[in-house]
């Protein structure tokens, strides 16, 4: 039977993973950066290095993308004290500003560490299991009555992005 501390750790780790996907897909790299410890490392396939270097890369690479979409599985978590090994499956689609979209099956293999009472990513390795060209656009597009997603403050879920950032500034407890 898991302890309350273990359940809280699992919930916090899951929140960090969800916040990361939301922030990246909404183009809020500052919010995504809050998912990592300051000295974290990341091997993201196209890039491998420190988390600061990763977000410099994201600034440049992100400008070439019209949109991204992460669909994350519930994480598989092995807790060991203040450390956790975490694997999360991800269906990922990226739409470049120019060219065709790509659809990938990824896994995030993360080492989370609890420091100063917070679980954050200390090491990340992105594992590519498969990829292919995304299907072409439908012959008949959805009608304009659909609420459309976008990056930044124009996205209909922008209030959630602001709330996530504000919750990180509130004192714990």
UniProtKB/TrEMBL annotation:
<dbReference type="InterPro" id="IPR037401">
    <property type="entry name" value="SnoaL-like"/>
</dbReference>
<dbReference type="InterPro" id="IPR032710">
    <property type="entry name" value="NTF2-like_dom_sf"/>
</dbReference>
<dbReference type="Pfam" id="PF13577">
    <property type="entry name" value="SnoaL_4"/>
</dbReference>
<protein>
    <submittedName>
        <fullName>Nuclear transport factor 2 family protein</fullName>
    </submittedName>
</protein>
<feature type="domain" description="SnoaL-like">
    <location>
        <begin position="6"/>
        <end position="125"/>
    </location>
</feature>
<feature type="region of interest" description="Disordered">
    <location>
        <begin position="140"/>
        <end position="173"/>
    </location>
</feature>
